[in-house]
Amino acid sequence: HDALPIWRRRSAYSCDTGRDCSFVIWESVAQRPIEPALVRTLLAGETTPALTGFVSKKGRAFTAALSLNEQGRVELDFDRTPSFSPVGAPCPQCGEGRLIQGRSAWGCGRWREGCRFTVPFGENGVALTTDEIKARIAPAAAPPPAPDEPPAPEVAPAPEDAPAPEPAPAAEPSPATDAAPTADEAPTDEAPGA
Q: What is the torsion angle, in degrees rounded to the nearest 10, for the CA atoms of residue 67, residue 5, residue 31 and residue 51?
């Protein structure tokens, strides 16, 4: 398969020579479609990143990378899958629940009570790394201010011995400001609010 062009057929990627070449990458592995970009990665002799969307014979979803063995057959590589699982960690959103594992994501065990926090197993078919998972379940550094509290100033106050800033230069009068007052602005003899 090294020197022969590979073509996408009905259900597989195979050599251009047909039956003379036994090389084949099936379009689907463990019920997960194999995109042309993944085939290019495999043909370059590389291992794919950990991928989501595989389904075992018992119907369970799993994550694995793909590689080609010495015979040119696709193999599942479980060594590249993250070994970290956030199951049991406190929910960073509600702070009361613990994370559980669902079919396609980890989520808060208090979902029945309304907490909607989830972390998907992967995005765009690629599994999240351990660092990405940990970053998503890390609690926020500081809670947002309460609605009745004013927000903290973002600029530090100037030292007392610092010179005062110079005033902005006066703007030149424009014809629009020199115009006669409109009916709403015209002076009247009535007292305000009368």
A: 40
Most confident of 3-7, 93-97, 151-155: 93-97
DSSP the chain: --SS-EEE-SSEEEETTGGG---EEESEETTEE--HHHHHHHHTTPPPPPEEEEE-TTS-EEEEEEEE-TTS-EEEEGGGS-----TTPBPTTTSSSBEEE-SSEEEETTGGGT---EEESEETTEEPPHHHHHHHHSPPSSPPPPTTSPPPPSSPPPPTTSPPPPPPPPPPP-HHHHSPP-TTTS--SSPTT-
pTM for the full model?
0.49
Mind spelling out the 3-state secondary structure of 36-72? HHHHHHHHCCCCCCCEEEEECCCCCEEEEEEEECCCC
Assess contact for 132 and 121: CB atoms under 8 A: no
Q: Which amino acid is at 120?
A: P
Stated length of the chain: 194
What would the pLDDT profile of 91-116 be if each residue is shown by its tens digit?
Answer: 999 989 999 888 778 899 999 999 99
Decide if pLDDT at 165 tops 70.
no
The closest alpha carbon to 38, from 126, 106, 167, belongs to 126
What's the CA gap between 64 and 53, in Å, rounded?
Answer: 9
